[in-house]
Each structure stands twice: as C-alpha cells, then as structure tokens.
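just leaving the lab so this will be short. what follows is a protein written twice so to speak, once as letters and once as structure tokens for the fold. can you read through it and tell me how you think this chain folds. anything you notice is useful, everything is just below:
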Amino acid sequence: MNPPASTGAPAEKPADENRVARDSLSLLASAMLGLRSTGDPATACAIAGDSARSALGASDYKLLRLEPRSGALRCLDPTGEETRYLPEPGGPVEWVMRHEQAMFDEGEDSAAPRESGLWAAPPAALATVPLISGGAAVGLMLVAFAAPRPFGSATRTLLQTLGDALGLALERSWLRRELDEMRRNVQTLEKQRRDGEQASSTLMSVVAHEIRSPLTAIKAYTEAMLDHLTNPHAPRERFLGIINSECDRLARLVSDVLDLSRLEAGQRPLRLARFDLERLVKETLEGLTPSAMERKITLTPQLEEGLVVEADPDLVRRLLINLVGNAVKYSPLAGTVRVVTRSSGDECLCEIEDQGPGIPTEDLPHVFERFYRARRQRDEEVEGNGLGLAISHGIVELHGGRIWAQSLEPHGTRLCVALPRRQLAAPRARRMARRIWGRSDLRELCDGTVDMVAASMDAEIVSLMLVDPDHGDLFIAAWRGLDGEKLQGRRTAVRAGVAGSVAAWGRPLLVNDIETDRRFSRLNHPQYTTKSLLCVPLCVEDEVVGVINVNNKISGEPFDDDDLAVLSALVERVGSAVERAIAHPESPRVVGEALEAVRAVTQLRRDGLLGGRNRAHLARATARQMGMSETEVDLVGYVASIHDVGMTRLQVAVNRPGKLDAVSRKEIQRHPENTIEMIRGLEYASAVRDVILSHHEHWDGSGYPRGLAGTDIPPGARILAVVDAWESMTRGRPYRPPLVRGQAIEELRRNAGRHFDPEVIEAFVRALAREEN
C-alpha cells in the first residue's frame, strides 16, 4: 500500500493550530509527569488519550498493544482488559504497522477505512501513531475526531511526542509485568520442584511400604518350599498360590504407578470404539462379584438400555473397576453398592454409591489426589495404595469428562462421572471450520500451506486435517504424497491417535519413533518410509480447527525440535491469516496476500535459496550459545527460514554466471525490502521485520540498507549475517567454488569486527563444534 496523501504536511495553519503550538509544551510536560508516575497501562493510555482529547478536541481514542512474538494486536480498554483486534484490510492500522510511521487522515475521503470495528460511531478524521520503544513498535495510539480537520505540524508533533512517551511508559509497565511474571514463574517452579521432591519422596515411601509386604510373603514362602524340598507332605500348592497372589499384587502396584504417570503427563491417547455401556458395566461387575462376595456386598446395577458411547473401552473398564472396587472396600459387611448409568444430553452419567462411613466435606475436593486418604470413620484397615481415584480422575480428564464426589445422608458416598457420548470438536471450532471450508480462497490457502510445509520441512508426505463441521471429527482437507483415491472416508476422532490427540491437546507434537513411543506404540504404516513425524495444531481465534501432519523426511533422518519450532511458527502465521480472513470476509486481499507469501516461501525453498533446515538449525543453535531466551531462539529460527523470500524476484541476477555487476548488485540489495513486502500477508510482528531488514548490515556500519553499526543491529540479524555467510561460503555460488570448513571459519574470523559481530562468530563456531560432537 502506498502512503496516503494525508501523511504530508498541511499547507495552512488554522487558528486552533496556533493554540496547539502555544499550549503544547505545558500539555506535554503535564502528560509526561503523569506517564512517568504510573506503571499501569490503562492509566498511561488514559493520560495520553485525555491529553490529546483536551488539546485537540478529539472525540475518542484507542490503544492497541502489539504482541512481539505473533504480531497480534490487543485493544486495551479503560479497565485494563485486553481483547483481540484484527486490523481492517487496507486501513490505517495495517499501514502503520507495516511502515512504522504515523498516518494522519484529515477526512478528505469520507469513504476511507478508519477501523470501524473500534468505534461506536465512525470517525470523520483519524490520527494513527505508532508507539516505538527500543527501536521496535510496541503498539499504536489512535485518536479519532468527529469532524474532518487538518493536522498541522504542531498537532503532529504533539501526537508523535505523546506516542513516544506512551511507548516508553508502556514498555516500562510491560517489562515490570514480565519481571513480576518471571518472579511468579520462578516461585511456581520452585514450589513445583519442592512438591515434586515431596511427591517423589512420598511415592518412594508408599511404594517401598507396599512392596515390602508382598516381598516378605514371597520370600517367606519361597524359603519354606526350599526347606521342605524333600518333604512330600509339604503344602507346595498352597505356598505357590500365595506367591502367585503376591506377585499379582506387585504387578498391580507397578501398573498403577506407570498408568498414573502417563495420565498425569497427558501421554495416553485414546483408543476409541463405540460400545454399549450397559454391556460393559455388566461384564465389569461380574468380574468384581467374587471380591464383593468376600465382604457379602451386593452389587445393584440400574443401567439405561441402549446407551452407546464413544470412548476407550479398556480405560472405561479400568475406571469402573477402580470406582466400584473403592465402593466395595469402604462399604460395611453385607452392604449394598449401587451402580447407575443414564444419558443426559450429550453426556452419559455414571454414579457409584456405597453405604460406608462417608467422606468429610473438607476432604471432598482432595479425594482424587494421588495418595490422599479421606478420614473415613471405620475401625478396620482398608487395603490400597491411594492411587485408584487419582487414576480414575486422569481417565475421565483424558476423555474430556468430569468426576466428583458427594457425601450422602445419613452416611455413604456417591462418586459421579460424566463422559461425553462422542469425542467431538468444540462447537465453536466446528462453526469456524465451516466458515473456512465454505470459502474457495481459504481452501486454496490450505492447499498452498501444505505445499509450503512440504518444501520447508523437506518432507514427502504432508496432510492438513480440518474439523468436520457436521460430524465433529477430523478429515483430510489437503495433502501431498498420499493416494487421493484412498483418502475417502479416512477420518480421525478427536483425542484418538496422533492427529486426534494434538487436536485435543492443542500443542505441537514430535514423535521420534512411532513404534517405540510409549504414547502410541503402533506399527509404522507401509506408506511411511521413516518412523518420525510432526503434528502441529492449526488454531484460529484460540480454537483448534485442524492439524498438519508431516511424514517422510526426504533425507531419511528423524525430525527434531528445530523442525517442530519452525513448523509451529509457519502454521501459527497461517492461522493468523485465516483469522483475519474470517474477520474481514469482504476483503479478498487478506487471503491473496497470505497466499502470495506462502507460494513465495515454497518457491524459494524448492529453488534451494532458503538454505533449508540447516540454516534455521544453525541460527537456533547460535542463538542458544549466545544465551538468548527460547522465545528469541524460536524467532531467530523462524526468520532464518523465510528471510530471503524477496530473492524470488531476483532469480536472474542470482543465477547469472560470473561476478555481479553494479545493476545486479543493486537489485539484490533490495531483497530485504522485497521480503518484507512479500510476507506481509503472514507477518505483522515488527521484531521479525526488523531482523529481516537488517540481516545485511555490517558491524562497522558499511552494510545495507540502513547503514546500522554495532549493537544497533538487532541480535537476530547479526546471527543471520554469520549463518548466511557460512552457507554462501560452504555451498559456493555460480561464480566461485565452495570453501571447506576450516577455510570458512578462518574467513569469518578474518571479518570479525568489520562485517560480523565477533561475539556471534565465536558463538557460531561453538555451535558448529557442538553439532560435530
């Protein structure tokens, strides 16, 4: 988009402009004092906005905060609450974010876009000012006017100075907030460490106690048999029966501990099936009848007929065994345990009631914690290791259900479980998926995304699965490397398998070996030549609307954490583009620009000009050697994978044999600006754009395009400069042969302090050495 004419200086200076020029110093002094004295973003916004309103007669103002990682915008209201805001396509916010310059719309064009979603009544004139701090945009201030008006130099200076002061105030408050958050995180981690140590100690104590009894019995009866080997009258059969029983007890304990650890870690995908709950409950109760008869307990089922559920039958059986077994243990001799199942809307309910002493009210919230024993009023010792209800809680949570306990009057306990009858995506995700699948341009973006991912990950097989709006499960919407005729009817339920688990968990997943990964442990399908895979959720408005699966790395190597980080960043940007397209369905340009960026990344990766996975891998490794945070490492790795997209417009100049002439060199020097222009459909974060724009700057200030020097160059750009030079030297160019490793390192060090940051070069060399080891 070209800068609007209203960014230029006005030709005349009206009377109110004179007043602004006269009073601006005192207004700014008052505003600065207020901004320096507050650490609250909402208060800082109110100070700046009220100053602009009183000085300029503005009708309203808004503050937008820019998230540095994703480039998402948050609108800050007077109470300090933040809501997601998507800029109007072609509007002032979009233009200012891309150019980081103020825009002043004097109202000459009444039909010009003015962020209508922000205002109760559309403004007639609008000033949009970037809030810059530390060389990067942290947000935007919008000041609206009810009538058209000119913006003279005094007005512009006042607004831009207020914006700069507000930017500093906001950065200070957000840094303080981040510091407080870091302190809280440290305290939380410290508490988790202490709790973990205590839990581990408790676990060892409980396990040791539980193991001691069966081991003592096993050893005693084994010694007895050894002592009576020659005695034909020794009760060997009874001894062996006791040993076998105690071994079973040990196996149950080990199984409980392992099951609980997997459930608590969320590492147990569901193996879903549709089954008759009544039949499963009856079979389970039949298996529990002998243990109930030992205490003369009557099991009384009241089961709804024909109640079909979609769940993991093995886990549901384990759930019933734990809950009914718990009720039997705490019931009095000759008591009754009642088991009730019934449907309730989209859920099936199960209630297990006993006639035991009940649970004190204060203990009810804790009964599903591991090793917790409620203070039941019963004289006899109850056998158990305190893990059964914790495992039950994990099983229910894994199904997306609910579990709770109730005390009955005058005595007794009721354990209640509510499970969804089918494992479906959330209604909001289904509505959003319908809007995506109903638009041909977004379906085209899905296809383009699969191509981009396949090229960026060097993968033979990629599929994008979307939530089915009607059925609520996942279906393959776009793919590469799969037989299309065999995809009909291939679906995955939410919470089942790799894709269904990622859709439910909402977090990226790396599987090193599908056959040995304890979460899945299944045979590799013949169509996959490697056992490693990636799966990443596609999120729109914080809802998982699909997943992207990546298989068969062309090199045959397994995927790693660097691959997962780059893939997650790319898919996150696609999700943001889809979000903007849904929010502004009347603007096809949103999808068009995103599709252009996706195709540019695909083309450049396939042409071999992006450097591939190795470039992102080296950039991330170097960033870690420099002590950067994981957020900064992720940003550097992501930028390394896209920062040369602008080279697609310069193929002729790049591939021309011989040394570059002046014209070709000048063309190539424009590729950072070309990249920023081409990826704007995917990328809004100023930190990303700043790294891209600066990765050809030199440490001594002799680089381009802005002639930055030293620490004025963003750290990520300094890293990319070294990684790019390494790739260029070791891969060669049409006009020169490649250098060997030692020669390339020597050349980098020769240019330390001139072209490159010396600290980055040494971090890069350490990263190389670490890779070799």
